[in-house]
Design goal:
InterPro entries: bHLH_transcription_regulator. This is Myc-type, basic helix-loop-helix (BHLH) domain-containing protein. This protein is α+β, with helices and mostly antiparallel strands. The chain has two domains: about 1-30; about 35-145, 2-Layer Sandwich (Alpha-Beta Plaits), CATH 3.30.70. Helices cover about 35% and strands about 25% of the residues. It contains three helices and five strands, in the order αβββαββα. The chain has a five-stranded antiparallel β-sheet, covered by helices on one side. The longest helix has 30 residues, at about 1-30. The termini are far apart.
Amino acid sequence: MLEDASNYIKELEGRVKELEGTLENNKRENVDQESVISVKRYRPSSSNDDLRDEPATSGESTAPCKTTPEIKACRLGNTLTVSIQCQINHSSFVKALTQMQKLGLSIISSSSMPFAKTHLLITIVAQIVDDFSMTTTELLKNLQQSI
């Protein structure tokens, strides 16, 4: 009876090692699927309501952020999280949702949160379907163009 128990424990240990190997392979495949597109940052003027048109003293451009939002995406398995930071423009929120649905992503949740009277944070969580073949970088470029 002890011999059977010992054999069973060895069998279970082998199965645990096999499953750990599979888990490690899955983690390695998903780690490289994170992409970020960052664009030039813009500095608001001393007034909270508008942006300066003249160049900033540090040499940065001060064009409105709504033309170049910062978009970040993280893909883990079949779930995709997209974060967009832009100047307040509620049409950007609708455009991002519409574009993601056109690309075949299933939106799980979405939110927008204003901050600093001039900016908007948009967060979208989507489910990736099996036939979705676009890379995260391609998705971000596509969103950048549509917003």
